[in-house]
Amino acid sequence: MPRLAANLSFLYQELPFEARLAAAAQDGFGGVEFLSPYEWEPGWLAEQLRAHGLQQVLFNAPAGGGTLAAVRSAWAEGWRGTASLPGAQRQFEYGIELALDYAQALGCSRIHVMSGAHPAQLAHGGSLRQQWLRRLGWAAERAARRHSPGAAPIVLLIEAINQQDMPGYWLHTQQQALAALQEIGHPHLGLQLDLYHCQMTEGDAQAQLLRGLGSGLLRHVQIAAVPGRCEPDAGAVDGPALLRQLDAAGYGGWVGLEYRPRSSTRAGLGWAAPWLRPGGSGAAGPQP
Ligand SMILES: O=C(O)C(=O)[C@@H](O)CO
Ligand SMILES: [Mg+2]
């Protein structure tokens, strides 16, 4: 049965950050994900997660930067990852090591590594692809070296993002993602399938989900409606049907709710009720 994670960069925006963790636990989520943990000290975050019985299931490697201060301002400055950006080797390496530090401190085994956005004229360069693959391979090796006995292996994930929402974003199709993962062939790399982006770019999220499951590379799923990126209870992305499909396929991993609620987060959770813990209060215990 898939497990639902609240994406705190999208859900509970009506609350300050600390209160989002409490609300997610109360609403029956066992896990949370969010874009950037780097605004907070890892020890403080780990304590908050523990206090609310929540598992950190995913966060992003820095969108840009090269120092902690630069990492913290990178998203607002327009950075969208560095993995394929020319001239960003230093920022990429710094970001991966920082993300691995946070993953170890938070007991989190999935990190989304964004590829970067390019001006249109660069978007199809073969040398960019080679650079992207080389950097992903290097990062996977760094993740492998951080393995500690008893902890789940840290896996670096790549996700196709639609270019309407993120113009020039390098990785925008499932085909690109799967081909890269198969070519590098590293156990510390995997697929993050965001059914919203997938439906926006390629259509037929259900078929793409089957393809992702069949690839053996699927490590995380995210979901939102098309159109609107709100609760997937109407429109082309049928949330309950897709969760049932994951269940039927034996997927026991996490599905991040990465959408903007139409009104309050809690009022919009009805569609997900069968997959949330009745009565809430957080996860039963850590799971990989
Ligand atoms: O936007 C998404 O979709 C994500 O998963 C983020 O990690 C990046 O914006
Ligand atoms: Mg996503």
From TrEMBL:
What is the protein's given name? Hydroxypyruvate isomerase
Report the sequence similarity comment from the record: Belongs to the hyi family.
Q: What is the lineage of its organism?
A: Bacteria, Pseudomonadati, Pseudomonadota, Betaproteobacteria, Burkholderiales
Q: Which organism is it from?
A: Vandammella animalimorsus
- Active site at 159 (proton donor/acceptor), 258 (proton donor/acceptor)
Query: Which biological process terms from the Gene Ontology are attached to this UniProt entry?
Result: glyoxylate metabolic process
Query: Which residue range or ranges hold the Xylose isomerase-like TIM barrel domain?
Result: 21-274
Q: Which keywords does the record carry?
A: Isomerase, Pyruvate
Entries under PANTHER family matching the protein: HYDROXYPYRUVATE ISOMERASE-RELATED, ISOMERASE
What GO annotations for molecular function exist for this entry? hydroxypyruvate isomerase activity
